[in-house]
């Protein structure tokens, strides 16, 4: 617990710098400059790895060293993005940070989007914590297998998430220009692209899954369970994950954030949390219960978001 508190306290100091970086990166993405945010994020990860090696193995700082490395990399991230935003050669740039003054009308418009999205993300993370607490009671074999599958599942959707971030910028511009048919067109097109990307990523992991678990040094029993779960989860993910996840980016870009918040929060608590706990404690299904709950969540949200998209009600909001 002491190590957890140490890590939390140090990394919490980096939250303002994450906000600065995200704001700056969003400015570059809006001006269709994706190269700078990608390069900064890549360099930050390399710096974080080198920092971990230095602080943990050279200075023997342990958990505090890992947290310090994360803090420093995020500070450097924010500093670089702020310096780049002052370059006049950029499409969007800032003359002087000292001249920035709050515009409360604009802040209010941003909060109308940001607060529901923040509530959605916050409740989602809290739900993950509840599920993780349930998994921690299953024994070391199940915990190791669940950790491996969760890591692989997260990796398999990164390409699709990147497409989703691009969708927000594109659909937002279309809606702002009142080109609603273009917004529908690009939402459909990018969802198909994300579906293909998700399929390729899942297949890339599924075929060498035995070698991946072997490379990770997992024990035979944990590896066997992880392989079995990965095959089930990824097969289902290739079908149902994209139809729920990608259209939500389009609806958020159009300002339909309250619907997204409600639709994402309720199924998450009902399916992921309640169903998982019920299956674990009643039928003793182990980590499979987690993925049954998650699969039910994906399925319900897919149908809801597709119905919302088809109704065009997500295009009836005015952000600015």
From TrEMBL:
- Bilayer-crossing regions: 6-24, 36-57, 63-85, 193-213, 225-246, 266-283
What's the short name of a Pfam family annotated to this entry? Answer: MatE
The lineage's top-level taxon is Bacteria
Which keywords does UniProt give here? Membrane, Transmembrane, Transmembrane helix, Transport
List, in alphabetical order, the Gene Ontology terms for molecular function in this entry. antiporter activity; xenobiotic transmembrane transporter activity
Q: Which InterPro entries match?
A: MATE_fam, MATE_MdtK
Q: Does the keyword Transcription regulation apply?
A: no
Q: Per the record, GO CC terms?
A: plasma membrane
Which family, according to the similarity comment? Belongs to the multi antimicrobial extrusion (MATE) (TC 2.A.66.1) family.
Free-text function comment from the UniProt entry: Multidrug efflux pump.
Q: What is this protein called?
A: Probable multidrug resistance protein NorM
Q: Which species?
A: Holdemanella biformis DSM 3989
């Amino acid at each position: 617990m002491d190590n957890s508190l140490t890590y939390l306290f140090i990394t919490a100091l980096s939250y303002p710098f994450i906000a600065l970086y995200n704001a700056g990166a969003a400015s570059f993405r809006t001006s269709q400059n994706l190269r700078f945010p990608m390069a900064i994020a890549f360099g930050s990860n390399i710096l974080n790895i080198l920092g971990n090696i230095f602080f943990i193995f050279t200075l023997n700082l342990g958990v505090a060293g890992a947290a310090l490395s994360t803090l420093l990399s995020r500070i450097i991230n924010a500093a670089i993005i702020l310096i780049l935003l002052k370059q006049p050669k950029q499409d969007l740039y800032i003359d002087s940070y000292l001249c920035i003054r709050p515009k409360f009308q604009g802040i209010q418009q941003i909060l109308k989007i940001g607060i529901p999205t923040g509530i959605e993300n916050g409740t989602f993370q809290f739900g993950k914590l509840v599920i993780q607490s349930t998994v921690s009671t299953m024994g070391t074999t199940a915990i190791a297998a669940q950790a491996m599958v969760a890591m692989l599942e997260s990796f398999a959707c990164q390409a699709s998430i990147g497409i989703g971030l691009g969708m927000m910028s594109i659909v937002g511009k279309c809606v702002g220009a009142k080109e609603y048919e273009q917004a529908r067109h690009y939402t459909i097109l990018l969802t198909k692209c994300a579906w293909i990307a998700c399929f390729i990523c899942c297949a890339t992991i599924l075929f060498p899954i035995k070698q991946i678990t072997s490379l990770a040094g997992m024990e035979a029993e944990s590896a066997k369970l992880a392989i079995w779960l990965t095959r089930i989860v990824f097969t289902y993910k290739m079908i149902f994950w994209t139809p729920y996840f990608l259209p939500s980016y389009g609806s958020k870009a159009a300002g339909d954030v309250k619907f997204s918040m409600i639709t994402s929060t309720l199924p998450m608590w009902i399916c992921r949390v309640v169903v998982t706990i019920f299956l674990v404690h009643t039928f003793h299904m182990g980590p499979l219960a987690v993925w049954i709950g998650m699969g039910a969540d994906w399925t319900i949200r897919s149908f809801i978001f597709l119905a919302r998209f088809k109704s065009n009600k997500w295009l009836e909001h005015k952000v600015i």
